[in-house]
Every structure is written in structure tokens, then in C-alpha cells.
Amino acid sequence: MSQRSLDPLSHATLVYVAPRPGSSGVSDYADDMLIEARGAFGHVVEIRHGGAGQDSVRDVIRARRAIRAAVRAAPGAVVVHAEQSGGVLVPFWGLAQRAMRDPRVIRSATLHDAPLGVWLPWRTRGIGRSRLLVHALHYPTMPLSRALERRVLSGVHLSALTASGAEAITAELGHGPVAVSFLPPPARPVLPPAPQRPLAVGLFGYVYKGKGFQDLERLRVLIDDRIAIRVAGRGTELLPPVPGVEILGGVEGAQEDAFFGGVRAILLPYGRRSSYGPQTHVASSVAARAIAYRTPVIALRYPGLSDEAEIVDGGIDELAAAVNRLVLDEEAMARLDASVRALGERLTVPEAFRRLATSWRAALPAA
Fold it and tell me: 208: which of 23, 63, 68, 70 lies 20 to 30 Å off by Cα?
């Protein structure tokens, strides 16, 4: 009898609920997890959906039906796993249905924006067209939505991508235990060591509140003129121009390789992202992408960020001072380069999947 046949996952079906490929950092993570899942499970069914605010009521209903159909068609035990984040609706409402109470079903979710799974549970595509309506629906109903979330996620095997996020989930939702995993860096080409790259730093990622793009002008004033500042990512092309800052817009493939090859460090000037509820514990897809390219990260202290970044206490002034101190110092850059290379060797996709699958194996009956 083979080792695989002894694994309970090899006799089970995985129904995997996640954003469509190419839509977000969460979808990139999902694509990596699916590669591992197909080698572990007997059968895998993908239910892919839109990003935050992109799905209509009809889309949510259609996805719920697809999840139910996949569960009913499965010949044995089923793991229904959802990648939950922000205002994405399908993963949350997909778990919130009677069919998920089948004793054959193990419900599971990774909360990417811990300590909550869904922050804006009523923001469909239509409602999202009106900022006023989004606020009018969600702000007064926060107590209701938190109570609903606690009920829906009761009995769900939860995981977080940071240790502090797992602790916050337990405190906020009264849920435990919560498994701890991490956001693995994707496979990327080998670049020259950071100290050998152009004298520049970068900001990278999708533009939204709390990512620090609004501080570009202040950063340019404070960072040494010898250090260039480059910015790339979805939505950055819409940022107002800042003299002395190169704004590239969205980059993929060879353009993304060139961007990371053209900076010695990535900056994360993160701040509070939402007025709704508790502080998020970020599992930064930008940090994961930087580690993939073996690019050091210099970040303001923020819940969830830890050993994947050089942490700076304070605000933008202190972050800029750290950039001037570190990026212009060859010995400091050599230390950061060695650290990020060690992280890249340790934080692998197979290890992230192993942590996720441990709770599934424990919950499923032995083959």
C-alpha cells in the first residue's frame, strides 16, 4: 500500500473557494495552494469568484449553488475551504448555508484580513457603486455583522497567516484554536543581490487606503536625493505625479522582474485601513513578493509584520531616516540581503500547505 493511499486527504474531495486567477494577492496565494492540493487530494473542485465588491447578488447565489452541487457530487468526505478577505462575499456566504452542515463536510477558511473574515458583508457590486450606501449599510450594522460572522464561522477550522492574526481572531470572534500559517513567496527569477542593484527603493502593490501611497511626496522630501523612488502596481498609474518619483503602473512578468531588479528595498508605510471594527493583522502580499525576489523590506510597525521586514517605529519621518541609514550603508544592506535570502529558503509553498492541511487531516476519518 502506497504512502499516499494512507493519507486521508487522498480519499477526500477539496472544494476550494477563492478569487479568480490574476485578480489579487489572495488569488496568487490560492493558485499556489491549488498546485499542492491537487497532489494531496483525491479530487479538487475550484469555485472562483470576483474580488472585493465585484460580485452581484446573482453571482453569490450562483457560487453557493456550485458549492452545494460539488458537495453533493463528492463520493466521500469533503473539505470546503474558503480564502476569506475584506469585502469579498462568496467565501463567507458560501460557508453560510445548510448544506455545509453535512457530517461528511469539513468546513475550513483562511482569514486573510484577520481578525475578521468579511468586513463588508453587504457590499455587492450594485451597492458598491455608492460610497454613501456602503457606509449607510455597514457602519450602523457592525454589531449585527459581527454576531453573524461568529455564528457562520462557528465550527469552521480557521487559519491565519500571522501569529498575531490568530490571537486576534480568538479575541474578536471567540474562536479557537486557530492554526497559524504564512503567505509564501511565489516562484520568481533569481536577481542580483540587493547591494548590487541600483540605488533606489520602491513601493509596490494595489492602491487602496492604508498602503502609504498618499505619503509619496513626503517620502521624496525626506529620503536622500541620491536614492531614487520607484512605484509600481495596479492603480498606481492613477496616482498624482510627484517630482522625483517614477510611477510605472501595473507590472507583470518581465516588467515586474525589472522593477524589483531596479530597487534595493521595498517600503511598507502601512497605516490603518478601515473604520470598520478592529485593526487588521496584515499578511502582506507585497512583502511576500519582495521575499520572492530576495528584496529586503523596510516597514513601519504594523500588526502582523514581523521577521519578514526591518521594522521601524514611528511614522514617515522615521521610515525615511531608516532608509537613508540602511540603503546607503553597504554592511547594513549585506545584512538585510542575507536575512531575506534565508526567509526565501524557509517560507516555501509546500510548507505553507503542510500547515494548512494538518487540521484537515486531523478532522477527517482515517482511510
Answer: 63
